[in-house]
Design goal:
Blueprint (H helix, E strand, L loop, with lengths): L1 E6 L7 H14 L7 E10 L10 E9 L5 E7 L2 H25 L1
Parallel strand pairs: 1-2
Antiparallel strand pairs: 2-3, 3-4
Length: 104
Amino acid sequence: MIIQLNTDKNIAGNERLESYLNSILKAELSNFSNNITRIEVHLSDENSQKKGENDKRCMLEARIENRQPIAVTSHANTLEKAVNDALEKLMASLKTIGGRLKNY
């Protein structure tokens, strides 16, 4: 499973952030790692330097073998919360797809 990090100009995509995302995504998605070929993480700060509610955005896109990609988005006050919320949504979608695949 390849993890690709994309950030906008307002978020520094440093090694610390990349390491954090790699560890959390690999740990949480370990049950699905055989089916996922790539995860794309898109992080952005929609208000730039201005203060605002839920201005941090995380979009996770999972590329699954022989399936259409799944994309989920979450907005929160911090990047960590946005990533965790998006990860929960992605896991719920993957569990649903996994259940459908087992039924066929």
